[in-house]
Specification:
Length: about 600
Amino acid sequence: MTSVIYTLYDKLTRKKTYDTTTLHVSELRRCLTVFDLTILGIGSTLGTGIYILTGQVAHETAGPSVILSFLIAAIASVLAGLCYAEFGARAPRAGSAYTYTYVSVGEIMAYIIGWNMILEYIIGAASTARALSSYFDSLINFAMRTYFIQHLPLHSGIFSEYADLFAMGLCLVITLLLVIGIKESAVLNNILTAVNLTVIVTVVIAGLTVVNKHNWNISPNEVENITNSTKIIGKGGFFPFGFEGTLAGAATCFYAFVGFDLVATTGEETKNPQRAIPMSICLTLLICTIAYCAVSIVVTLMVPYYLINPDAVLPEAFQYVHLPTFKYIIGVGALAGIFTALLGSLLPLPRVLYAIASDGLIFRFIAWIHPRLQTPMVATVLGGIVASIMALLFDLKKLVEMMSIGTLLAYSLVSVSVLFLRYQLNENQLVNNDERAVQSIYTQLFKPFRLHPTIVSARLTKYLITCLIINGFILSAIQIFAQHRLEEKDPIAIIFLIIFLLTEIFFIVAIARQPKNAKSLYFETPCIPYVPILSILINTYLILKLSPATWIRFGVWMFLGFLIYGFYGFWHSSQRFVNDTQRLLSDSRSSLDNS
């Protein structure tokens, strides 16, 4: 029985391997530059966040301190981005977090991440198409909505109020562009992103001419004279909802930076990916952070936070300062920005499908490459059709949070993967002849720093990382679910918090003392192990903040995914055939040596 369990565990955790001759070989067309990747990343990130999220957080959660919310969210995103950048240098392949996890953690965890990334991109594309349709509809006085409700109503609580043919058409148009080729899609993305950035710069410059510093220092008396029967409007000042509101705003703003991982999915279509991917990720996050903070500063200085319209923040802000003509300039930028965000959601979807299907974990026909266009034709069409159907039928407000689980899990697993790989043995290390390989765990934990990993240190670090993740999960749960008791200074809750906090510090110190491998890369995540660990803890906290309904929908999607893996992927895995072949060759050599 034990041997059966060990064999099953061994198969579920088999890792994908690349040699130096196949790492850069791809059937896809390598045509993207650092500039193309950076613009793709900016386009997929600077969409709905600028035109919708800024107003919502400033009005309802953080007030003028929304600027700090974006900065905190940017730091959290940079932590994950640095880990993505290292893997882009290690394994420049299609698939992003799926491929990275397959290389370092194993097959079953990679499949879980890949399956959730599929859902993330589908929902992201469908919801963005709906957002673009709604924004365009607002510019024509909601003529489409009126027509669709009259002629295409959906009388069901499950579906949307009406069938949105315009949103469906947008998904299909983007799908057609992606079928033609990624370079052509990148050219269109470059043009639209340039328009979006030009509008943002124009908004910032024009807004700075009409700012009012008083809006950052509104007195409590002024707020008390305002009646608002539906929402709490805070206490005025720079932190009207307290620093807790700023942190809550940061949790929301974190999702404004989702999109930079698009860069990592293009590893097989990029020229010199080991240099281009890390550089593009860092540039994307830097430019997006500047843009978000600049717009937040201007908006909160133009309009008192409690008067900001969360649904149309920029047009209403310029209306407030008597510059109504900017409504149309902003409309052009918004349409361009949200369109590029839609492209940014649909572009990585077929790359992830292609990567998983190429490995045999889902149906292999999905990985078919068009011989002339050199694009994953089936994956692109399949992903586009599913996203367009969802955009047509579903009201995605309840589903948007669902894609957050996939994103946060992906970020966490990439950070874990970086930790695992940094503390494992290099392939060329002959540790079997190394006396340090037989050191005791006690010696390994408390020894002075050494230069190279050993068998014991590599295994020990895996256990420490696993314990750190579990302990961090419990620590976050205590902070979230026992928050009321902690505020009341309940001694039992405080004692448990201190115990798990000290335990977490112990694991961090123990991991930091283990020797790291010295493999040289073009880009390496700095401050190992602290950057990946901090990223893991932040993502764990945000995952636990999601609603129970989101976890139920996540469970249904995962059940479907495990059915596919159990009946197909486990048996058709390419790595399974590789491992079986290597085992047969090893057995044959052993038989020859014995004879």
